[in-house]
Amino acid sequence: MVETDILIIGAGPVGLFTVFEAGLLKLRCHLIDALPQPGGQLSEIYPKKPIYDIPGYPDILAGDLVDNLMKQIEPFKPGFTLGDRAETLEKHEDGRWCVTTSRGVKHYASVIAIAGGLGSFEPRKPPISNIVDFEDNGVEYIIRDPELYRDKNVVIAGGGDSALDWTIYLADVAKEITLVHRRTSFRGTLDSVEKVMDLAKSGRVNLVTEAQVIGLNGNGKLDEVVIKHKKQGEIVQKTNHFIPLFGLSPKLGPIGDWGLEIKKSAIVVDNTLDYATNIPGVFAIGDVNTYPGKLKLILCGFHEATLMVQSAFKIVYPDQKASFKYTTVNGVNGF
Amino acid sequence: MKDIINVTVIDREGVEHQLEAPTDMNMNMMEVCKAYDLPVEGTCGGMALCASCHCYILSDHELAEASDDEEDMLDQAFFVEDNSRLGCQIRIKEEIDGLKVRLAPVDESAA
């Protein structure tokens, strides 16, 4: 169980900076994020890309901005629940909110700040109509325990680092491993590509390029994959497991079912004063919200977070008046 | 020098849209589609990092070859064909006047 003042859903740049602004008002924060690391899109999608519109930084790598934000909020000792997704929002009997994650961890807070960006990152699922029927019955999007594949027939699809690395790893574990990829060339680190090519040459990996998996057969449990090859047509192959590794993509997810007003996958906020949603005590800041004139920029999210915490203070301490102080007066430790 | 070019976009319902695009604003096809409110997300903002602007080139224009980044992203996309491209990597310039593209199906797991 976790208790805090402001529960922040999403540990991207805006969620992280919220901790700083809340800290100046002596409000405690805890962050939940589906990804195993903080930073959101910046860490997951483009850590090595420079950003040019952060005030005071002519350019800064996305990954470095996240590192700096983590350093900046460190004095306020935020809590983190990472690699776990916020699933449900309920009103607790004492008037506070309770957010439960997919692992069942309950988080209690007076204020919820949704800084969910584009949503939570989830594995891309290939558009095979019956793939859902085989999930956890032969189809896995994430490898949790490699031992599951010992002495089994395994088909992996994808062309990136995770597809290559798992092919290399499972070559020693599985009875037979097949890697299916759309092109003859692979992205991913040169070293991994060469290793897979060597394993293919020595016959330990069955490499099928210019092909994609288009069908799955089986009765309750996966039995065969149908591979469409550019030149050879359809190939049916017996297998115990199919592991599609096509990276992650963001999805609004369970937040969409919390009773919030949603427009085009964004949460509608009714004003630009504190970004309150239609549910009292629940705010939406950063890329996840929408209002007339909205710009999806990190710097706008920082501003939204700063205004939001002022209203959050009034909810957490209804009888007190927040005093506004500049950090230049006493430094961060004076707060 | 032509300041405005015409491009055709066929949406996912098969409806053809004739769009006008300025060549002097450093735009790409994803941005033009969004400007016309066509259902193109452009989630990553045009960095070739999300494939939500995946489309098929139907006309026989010679486009600049796809970069490694674009090919890498197409590896993670679905419904990829030989004429697949990312709209955000197609620059609006005079040479592509008359370009015709069809929007690729939406990746349902990302919707």
Write the layout of secondary structure elements.
The complex is a heterodimer of chains A (335) and B (111).
Chain A: E1 2-9, H1 13-24, E2 29-33, H2 41-44, E3 50-51, E4 60-61, H3 62-73, E5 79-82, E6 86-91, E7 97-101, E8 106-114, E9 120-123, E10 153-157, H4 161-171, E11 176-181, H5 190-201, E12 205-209, E13 211-219, E14 221-229, E15 233-238, E16 241-244, E17 248-251, E18 262-263, E19 266-268, E20 282-284, E21 289-290, H6 298-316, H7 327-330
Parallel strand pairs in A: 1-2, 1-8, 2-5, 8-20, 10-11, 10-16, 11-12, 19-21
Antiparallel strand pairs in A: 3-4, 6-7, 7-8, 9-17, 13-14, 14-15, 18-19
Helix pairs in contact in A: 1-3, 1-6, 4-5
Chain B: E1 4-10, E2 16-22, H1 29-35, E3 54-57, H2 68-75, E4 84-86, E5 100-103
Parallel strand pairs in B: 1-5
Antiparallel strand pairs in B: 1-2, 3-4, 3-5
Query: CATH superfamily assignment of the largest domain in chain A?
Result: FAD/NAD(P)-binding domain
Following the backbone from N to C, one meets helices and strands of chain B in this order, namely EEHEHEE
| Helix count from the secondary structure assignment of chain B | 2
- Shape category of chain A: elongated
Class computed from helices, strands and strand pairing of chain B = alpha+beta
CATH architecture label of the largest domain in chain A = 3-Layer(bba) Sandwich
Distance between the termini of chain B: 40 Å
Radius of gyration of chain A: 23 Å
- What's the number of extended β-strand segments of chain B? 5
- Name the CATH superfamily classification of chain B: Beta-grasp domain
Radius of gyration of chain B: 13 Å
Under CATH, the topology of chain B is which? Ubiquitin-like (UB roll)
Rounded mean pLDDT of chain B is 92
Gross morphology of chain B: globular
> Which structural class do you get from the secondary structure elements of chain A?
alpha/beta
